[in-house]
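Exercise 4. Each item below gives a protein and its sequence. For each, produce the structure-token representation.

Item: Carbohydrate sulfotransferase (Nothoprocta pentlandii).
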Amino acid sequence: YPRQRAPQTQLSKFNQTMIKAMMGSYIKVLFVRDPFQRLISAYMQSVGSHRHSFSTFVQDVLDRGQHNVKLEAKPLVSLCHPCLIQYDYVMMFGFLRQELGHLIHRAGLPKGIHLPELRDSEVQWTYEWLSEQLFSELSLKQKKQLSHFYREDLSAFQFSHSLLSG
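Answer:
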């Protein structure tokens, strides 16, 4: 937003009129990912510093609750507020190759822009396999608690193949 170029200023520091003007001047894109896959990613990042099982990691997330859990494991709805912000595009992890081309065209960026190589199908297959393996380590109680923990994400976005949806 041209009038306020302070890089460290949070949106919440502005009044509602300024927020509305700023948000209206941007193309707003939200990248979403299955909450269980995000949880796996957070676990994989923590494996180097901690030596605990996935089940223990999940229980720690559940015990901390939505407000005290680390950013990587927080439900998306609590981070991106899709009910308050009218996003122009919601892009699903696993379909980035198709969706990015459309977004670049709609945003008016040059047609010859170079995109990184995206191997959505390979990444998706790997996460599906890993998800099934790690999901099988969880107790039925933990599975139900995770579904409840991420209930708003699961209802706000179409994660039709999520293990937490079942």
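Check: The longest strand covers residues 29-32.
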